[in-house]
Design a protein that fits this description.
Layout (H helix, E strand, L loop, with lengths): L7 H27 L12 H4 L24 H10 L8 E3 L6 E3 L7 H13 L6 H34 L4 H17 L12 H16 L3 H12 L9 H10 L2 H14 L2 H26 L1 H12 L8 H18 L1 H26 L3 H15 L7 H4 L5 H9 L3 H22 L7
Antiparallel strand pairs: 1-2
Length: about 425
């Protein structure tokens, strides 16, 4: 059967994505059989006790053998919410120091990804795996397909840019292929093949931007709303959508709608309200979540348990300083981890500013918002993962990749760092 939307360029992207998925998952399985890392690990302040022998022995959601290399750390909560709900006692609780109330630790995470896992797990239950194994398979399918959707949206963004500057389709396809490849070989892209939200998020957020550029506001709003319920960064999709609306003559359409209200003409009112609805929906969804019992629990846990918050500038600067001091004290493993996080943030910032200079304002603004939300959230850790969802980074790198020396150098550096991260993700590193 011929699929009209699956042209030659998208077939190339599917091939790259499929090979990448096979390589990452296979490498994780092989490295587990062949590599024995030394414990405990002092890469960050909390990793020493997290990597003690048997530390995760009683964490049921991390000890299922099926696809176990695809789960670690936060995967426990996504699987726990999907299988046992937010109040699942297996996840445990944390005590709020201000109120002495116990808050289920599952409240730390947004609902859309676990909800999708629950839905996809229903037909997968016919395979007759146990509940945790079924949820793990469902979660991996979702994050891999979300990554593919993100690659398609990235391809659309790149090729649309070339149409505007009247470049050849061959140049556009080449840049699109590079952008997709650089996104997947970026070291933080490891999380696009794990039980984490990054893969799903880029599919939703990048997809919302691509659809808005096509003026398909209903679908753009739906994806942006889903992104807002997938992770805290999702509310920021309102920024590129608003810029796209304004650049497409939003103010004129709004004025037309106001005139239509006076003359009671429904059509201009509807077409003016639709993009505004798409822009507002992720904000409304985030506010509804934030003011719910789950959202209140999320905010408290982010504050006292994870050390994060909205634009915590003072805490963020303090975390950068204390993180540097810790890295200098502990030596190589901590220094490498700290350096990779800082380098990833600087690269993403440079890429965003470069796209801003090239007047790709919607992508640059969204990327800068993601960087600010991540880099100024308090705790400085996991930055290399957070920068994986910044769209400016693969687009900017793709432009640089036209230079053959850069293509080879970036590929080699990414492969080495990715190999290190894959080994650190290995179950043998942190489970007896």
């Amino acid at each position: 059967m011929r699929l009209p939307w699956l042209d030659g360029q998208r077939k190339t992207i599917v091939t790259i994505w499929a090979l990448w998925a096979v390589i990452v998952i296979s490498f994780q399985a092989i490295s587990y059989e062949r590599v024995r890392l030394v414990r405990p690990d002092y890469a960050v302040s909390w990793s020493s006790w997290e990597t003690e022998l048997g530390n995760n022995l009683f964490k049921d959601y991390l000890n299922e053998d099926f696809l176990n290399q695809q789960v670690a750390w936060d995967s426990e909560y996504y699987l726990g919410i999907a299988v046992g709900g937010y109040d699942d006692p297996i996840a445990g609780t944390a005590t709020d120091p201000d109120t002495n109330k116990e808050i289920p630790r599952n409240y730390s995470f947004f609902p859309f990804y676990p909800a999708l896992i629950s839905v996809v797990a229903v037909p997968l239950s016919l395979i007759r795996l146990n509940a945790i194994a079924t949820a793990t398979l469902a979660g991996l399918i979702i994050t891999l397909l979300g990554t593919l959707a993100g690659l398609f949206a990235l391809d659309d963004l790149v090729r649309r840019r070339f149409k505007k500057v009247d470049q050849s389709s061959e140049d556009a396809a080449g840049l699109s292929t590079r952008a997709a490849t650089y996104l997947l070989i970026y070291p933080g892209a490891l999380f696009f093949a794990q039980i984490y939200t990054e893969g799903l998020f880029i599919g939703l957020a990048f997809g919302a931007i691509a659809l808005a550029l096509r003026q398909r506001w209903f679908l753009a709003g739906a994806l942006a709303t889903a992104a807002a319920l997938t992770r805290a960064h999702g509310v920021l999709t309102a920024i590129p959508l608003a810029i796209i609306w304004w650049n497409a003559g939003g103010s004129a359409a709004f004025s037309s709608a106001l005139r239509g209200m006076r003359t009671r003409r429904i059509r201009p009112i509807f077409f003016a309200a639709l993009p505004l609805l798409a822009i507002g929906l992720p904000i409304v969804a985030h506010l509804i979540w934030r003011t719910s019992a789950l959202g209140e629990g999320w905010a408290r846990l982010q504050d006292f348990y994870f050390g994060r918050g909205y634009l915590s500038v003072t805490d963020s600067l303090a975390a950068w300083v204390t993180g540097a001091a810790y890295a200098l004290e502990q030596g190589r493993e901590a220094l490498v981890t700290y350096a990779l996080d800082r380098i990833s943030l600087i690269l993403a910032l440079v890429a965003s500013l470069a796209l801003l200079r090239q007047r790709q304002v919607e992508i640059a603004a969204f990327s800068l918002a993601l960087i600010a939300a991540s880099g100024l959230s308090g705790d400085h850790q996991s930055t290399i993962r957070y920068m994986a969802i910044v769209p400016a980074l693969p687009i900017w790198l793709a432009g640089l990749g036209r230079r053959p020396w850069f293509d080879r150098a970036w590929s080699l550096a990414s492969a080495l760092i990715l190999a290190l991260l894959l080994m650190l993700f290995s179950r043998d590193f942190w489970v007896a």
